[in-house]
Write a structure and sequence with these properties.
Strand content: 15-25%
Bound molecules: 2-acetamido-2-deoxy-beta-D-glucopyranose
CATH superfamily of the domain at 561-784: Transferase(Phosphotransferase) domain 1
CATH topology of the domain at 561-784: Transferase(Phosphotransferase), domain 1
Helix content: 25-40%
Membrane topology: Single-pass type I membrane protein
Protein name: Protein kinase domain-containing protein
Keywords: Glycoprotein, Leucine-rich repeat, Membrane, Receptor, Repeat, Signal, Transmembrane, Transmembrane helix
Shape: globular
GO molecular function: ATP binding; protein kinase activity
Strand order of the largest sheet: 1-2-3-5-7-9-11-13-15-16-18-21-23
InterPro entries: Kinase-like_dom_sf (IPR011009), Leu-rich_rpt (IPR001611), LRR_dom_sf (IPR032675), LRR_Rcpt-Like_S/T_Kinase (IPR051824), Prot_kinase_dom (IPR000719), Ser-Thr/Tyr_kinase_cat_dom (IPR001245)
Length: about 775
């Protein structure tokens, strides 16, 4: 009976929402513009349901069409046709099309993908002066990129992929002040790149693959935020580009790079993907690349890398794919590649002594190594023995030399960080002049980079109330897990057998489902390896006025307890070892980084606690409770950004900046507990510890160890402990501005993992300890 009643309530709720959501009508001229666009595009099937009686602002978005309005003015338009859509007919005029488009003058986001658009892109597109994201991928646009676009000073993403644009990359590109994504992949652009690219300080993604570019890549080392560089399939070279060391993905394959790799490459601690295949690289292959802590994909196939590989070389725990094929390497494939079935390794076409993939006799590699001239040509024949010897031991000597250089790189980065503003800053300040909630609706734009951190979770979906009830056995008390500021939590099991955690949020009256859709969409995009991610949601409505009574958010279930229970929980459970503690801290920091910069605007003030960090079966840390935008909504803060409790006279920019540092402080508390290994409950206790920590940093190793959890006291290396203590102390500084950025934190944590020596009896150190004892640098890091 009760169930039947519930259903009719929901049904009624849906009907009422449908009836009333159309009450506010879109300004009619904009509706006409959309209908004209439909006609100019020759009535594509994606727009089949558009007609004069449709309420565009309240129509349900789907994968091919989305219209977003802010106060009944269209701010976003996405039309995505079928892949492989042919050219529009002869009577199509790109000029009339763009003339029509500029009838939507408030557009901030414009996506017109796979629609068969053809012709030269008219410069008058720049009349859309509020544009922040422009994506016209997979059409047939040709000729030069119009120079008028240089006036779009708010542009953050310019995506012209998969068209037929020709000519050179214009110099004015450097004058777009906040450009963060530039993708010109798959066009017919040529010439060499302008030096002006190095002015794009905010650039995160630069994708230029599959064009006809040539020549040296300009110096990009000033682009401190560059995370993705894709130059595949051009004719760049011969010198390896100069780059900052924040790179996450670096693809240089199918070019004309010829010189050796610079030592800095082994300091790219955040690098996940490195593809150097199909070039002409010479010189010793720095095998320490294999142990870069974040690396998952390494491809150096089809080059002329020389050098000897050693069985005892360690590999990054993350590494999944390695291709060393068709080079001139000798020695033995590292055991870590052979013995770990999760790592796929290809190495045919070298001169390795390792058996089962086709190898050349060692003389071939030696002769060819001589032929490609590892050393300058003026060396006489006498030197040839030395050359071979270099080829053979190059890996080892090179490795040691590289570590020294890493040290230099560390210092350089640290001093640079001291002056560099955090990445989010400009976006934040931009937001202060705009409309927070408008920006909020743009939050769906998660950069490609950040997606690299996403997991193989099922697609986000809507759950039915019935499903939620069944999963929790009708919210049985045995399924109840707890209650916090973010509602009650229930454990559940879905029909397919998978476990989920269901958060139940009671809503104040008066909001319809429509009010929540933007937030739900944001939540659906908050997916990351280090966040407990949402799988879907379900609305329950009041019978009388159709407003939402409860929202159920269905999350992935993380089975292995809280981080606290592994550190200081006093359970019978084994305490977490040192390297796993660092790995957990790195995980939390990556989760925070994603919340801050993975989406625009970021999610701040997450009130992070060690009890809200969960570990999964592989001890991967996941933040389970972050600042869900729905909660702000519930407190009556609709449309005021994501931050809570901020006073009106603060600009949004300053607020976000402070909120960012609030999370850094909370992270410091988590790190402190990880270090000392006991629950920290009072403010006073924290203050006392903080002072002790600060004092011990300048004292000796013994003093520092005396502060640390006895369970790990003897296994942590001196440098790794000191690095962690220093970063922890900085996170807890009183003045938010003095606290480090999340990038700085991450860098230091990864460094601490790197210098932790696996030989100290830390038996769980299967990951994150790639530096071998004799390579450990004798270094010091100073705090700023
Ligand atoms: C273009 O021509 C087609 C017929 O080939 C016609 O159906 C369509 O309406 C024309 N479109 C425009 C914008 O004139
Ligand atoms: C507009 O489309 C809807 C369905 O998408 C249909 O019910 C309605 O009759 C159409 N109106 C007109 C005027 O064609
Ligand atoms: C998406 O929505 C548009 C109108 O908003 C409609 O014409 C189209 O058929 C829908 N596409 C899918 C795949 O549902
Ligand atoms: C451009 O839009 C298409 C369709 O939404 C999307 O698949 C693609 O990832 C976008 N490109 C970029 C670089 O954001
Ligand atoms: C680049 O392409 C344009 C047009 O396709 C051509 O006119 C020009 O000569 C090319 N420039 C170079 C440097 O090849
Ligand atoms: C690896 O083995 C080689 C010789 O087999 C040896 O010279 C080198 O010191 C070893 N390296 C480490 C880190 O154990």
């Amino acid at each position: 009976m009760a169930k039947a009643f519930r259903y009719s309530a929901i049904l009624l709720c849906v009907v009422i929402v449908l009836l009333f959501s159309g009450s506010e009508q879109l300004q009619s001229s904009q509706g006409e513009t959309l209908l004209r666009i439909q006609r100019l595009l020759n009535y594509p099937s994606a727009l089949s349901s558009w007609n004069s009686s449709i309420d565009f602002c309240n129509s349900e978005p789907n994968a091919s069409v989305t219209v977003v309005c802010y106060e009944q003015i269209i701010t976003q338009l996405h039309i995505i046709g079928n892949k492989g859509t042919p050219l529009l007919p002869r009577n199509f005029s790109i000029d009339s099309f763009v003339t029509t488009l500029v009838g939507l003058p408030n557009l901030k986001v414009l996506t017109l993908v796979s629609l068969g658009l053809w012709g030269p892109l008219p410069g008058k597109l720049a009349r859309l002066s509020s544009l922040e994201i422009l994506n016209v991928s997979s059409n047939f646009l040709y000729d030069a990129v119009p120079s008028e676009l240089s006036s779009l000073t708010g542009l953050q993403s310019l995506v012209l992929e998969d068209n037929m644009f020709a000519g050179e990359v214009p110099n004015w590109i450097g004058s777009l002040p906040i450009l963060s994504v530039l993708s010109l992949r798959k066009n017919m652009l040529n010439g060499s790149l302008p030096d002006a690219l190095s002015d794009l300080e905010d650039l995160r993604v630069l994708a230029l693959s599959h064009n006809y570019f040539k020549g040296e890549v300009p110096d990009l080392s000033s682009l401190a935020n560059l995370q993705v560089l894709d130059l595949e399939d051009n004719a760049f070279g011969p010198q390896f580009p100069q780059l900052g060391n924040k790179l996450v993905s670096l693809v240089l394959s199918k070019n004309k790079f010829r010189d050796g790799l610079p030592a800095e490459v082994t300091s790219y601690y955040q690098l996940q993907r490195l593809d150097l295949s199909n070039n002409k690289f010479v010189g010793p292959f720095p095998q320490s690349l294999l142990s870069l802590p974040s690396l998952t994909y390494l491809n150096v196939a089809d080059n002329k890398f020389t050098g000897m590989l050693f069985e005892n070389q360690s590999c990054s725990a993350q590494l999944e794919f390695v291709d060393l094929s068709s080079n001139l390497m000798t020695g033995h494939l590292p055991n870590c590649l052979l013995q770990d079935s999760r790592k796929k390794a290809l190495y045919a076409g070298n001169c390795l002594a390792t058996g089962d993939q086709n190898q050349h006799p060692i003389s071939i590699c030696r002769n060819e190594a001589l032929a490609v001239g590892i050393l300058p040509e003026r060396k006489t024949r006498k030197a040839s023995k030395a050359i071979i010897a270099f080829g053979v031991i190059g890996g080892v000597v090179g490795g040691i030399a590289l570590v020294g250089l890493i040290y230099l790189a560390v210092r350089k980065v640290k001093s640079r960080n001291a002056f560099k503003k955090p990445t989010t800053r400009l976006i934040a300040e931009n937001a202060s002049t705009g409309y927070p909630s408008k920006l909020l609706s743009d939050a769906r734009y998660i950069s490609q980079t950040m997606k690299l951190g996403a997991l193989g979770l099922p697609a986000y979906r809507t759950f039915s109330l019935e499903e939620v009830e069944e999963a929790t056995n009708n919210f049985d008390t045995s399924a109840f897990m707890g209650e916090g500021s973010q509602g009650q939590m229930y454990r559940g099991q879905l029909k397919d057998g998978s476990f989920v955690a269901i958060r139940c949020l009671k809503m104040k009256r008066s909001h319809s489902t429509q009010n929540f859709m933007q937030h739900i969409e944001l939540i659906s995009k908050l997916r990351h390896r280090h966040l407990v991610s949402a799988l879907g949601h379900c609305f329950e409505c009041y019978l009388d006025d159709s407003s939402v009574s409860r929202i159920f958010l269905v999350f992935e279930y993380v089975p292995n307890g809280t981080l606290r229970s592994w550190i200081s929980g006093g359970h019978a459970r084994q305490k977490l070892h040192w390297t796993n503690r660092i790995a957990a801290a790195i995980g939390v920091a990556k989760g925070i980084q994603f919340l801050h910069t993975g989406i625009v605007p970021g999610v701040y003030s997450n009130n992070l606690k060690i009890t809200d960090v969960l570990l999964d079966q592989n001890l991967v840390a996941k933040i389970s409770s972050y600042n869900l935008p729905l909660l702000a909504e519930n407190k009556g803060m609709v449309g005021h950004g994501t931050s809570s409790g901020a006073s009106k006279d603060h600009s949004l920019g300053t607020r976000i900046n402070q909120d960012e540092k609030v999370d850094v402080y909370d992270f410091g508390l988590i790190l402190l507990e990880i270090l000392v290994g006991r629950s920290l409950t009072s403010r006073n206790e924290v203050d006392v510890l903080k002072d002790q920590l600060q004092a011990s940093i300048t004292s000796d190793d013994a003093a520092r160890r005396s502060l640390v959890d006895p369970a790990v006291q003897r296994v942590c290396s001196e440098q790794s402990l000191k690095t962690l203590m220093e970063i922890c102390a900085r996170c807890l500084l009183k003045n938010p501005a003095d606290r480090p950025s999340i990038e700085d934190i991450l860098w230091n944590l990864q460094f601490a993992a790197q210098v932790q020596d696996p030989g100290r009896g830390d038996s769980q150190s299967s990951e994150g300890s790639p530096v071998t004892p004799d390579q450990r640098p004798p270094l010091h890091i100073t705090i700023h």
